[in-house]
Amino acid sequence: MNKVVLASNNSHKLKEIQQILKDFDYELISMKEAGLDLEVEENGLTFEENSLIKAKAVSEALNVITIADDSGLMVEALKGEPGVYSARYAGEPSNTEHNNQKLLRELKDVPKEQRQAKFVSVITMYYPDGKTIVARGEAHGTIGYAYKGTQGFGYDPLFIDNETQKTFAELTEEEKNAISHRAKALEKLRGLLND
Predict the structure, then answer these.
(1) CA distance linking residue 125 with residue 74, whole number of Å
(2) Is residue 1 very low, low, confident or very high in pLDDT (cuts 50, 70, 90)?
(3) Which residue among 63, 80, 138, 191 is least enclosed by CB atoms within 10 Å?
(4) For residue 10, how far is the Cα from the chain centroid?
(5) Residue 64 C-alpha from the chain's centroid
(6) How many CB atoms lie under 10 A from the CB of residue 35?
(7) Is 70 a catalytic site residue?
(8) DSSP character string of 91-148
(9) At a CB cut-off of 8 Å and minimum separation 6, what does 139 contact?
């Protein structure tokens, strides 16, 4: 089984990706488990750029295969914001509660039919020889007016999925992992690995 390092210190993301990849022939471990303490500056303008920046930096530091996920929320009424700044939407340091409150404030006067949004995930698998595999997944929905549900993390309590008409925070782990943007990106990655 190949060890693959996730280019992130986000424990929620690690757990979610491990769940989705559990039947893969890879053992996904965190940077911490790999003995790496590295803060990678995400200065790309797209999810694709940031995903590659993270994957490449960690791969070069450890000389291993890495997976990086750059993901975020894009809201049509806000011209795609928060986008690549989703984790830092309300400023530094990153704070989920502040981000969600800012999003609700920004959409305060936006009617229900104009609250379309999508979660985007771009997964980059980077090999020490420079080979890269990139997969993008999207989940479409709308932004609610108040928190609903207690599961998940980030914007999950506000994002109402088009398929289920529930927020991601109202879904079980298994339900979310079957339809999320990250699940869709990983499914594409799986197909690319099998090619």
Answers:
(1) 23
(2) low
(3) 63
(4) 10
(5) 22
(6) 8
(7) yes
(8) -SSP-HHHHHHHHHHHTTT--GGG-EEEEEEEEEEE-TTS-EEEEEEEEEEEE-SS--
(9) 118, 119, 159, 161, 168, 179, 180, 181, 184
Q: Closest Cα partner for 86 from 46, 126, 125?
A: 46
- Pairing status of strand 65-75 against strand 116-126: antiparallel
Structure tokens at 51: 């995903």
Q: Where do the structural domains in the chain lie, given as residue ranges? A: 2-194
Q: Which CATH class is domain 2-194?
A: alpha beta
Instruction: Please tell me the pTM assigned to this model.
Output: 0.91
* Two structure tokens written together for 45: 């303008």
Residue-wise pLDDT for 169-184, tens only, equals: 999 988 998 999 999 9
Residue entry with tokens 């530094």: 92
3-state secondary structure of 39: coil
Give the span between the Cα atoms of 66 and 29, in whole angstroms.
10
Residue 61 contacts residue 150 (beta carbons within 8 Å): no
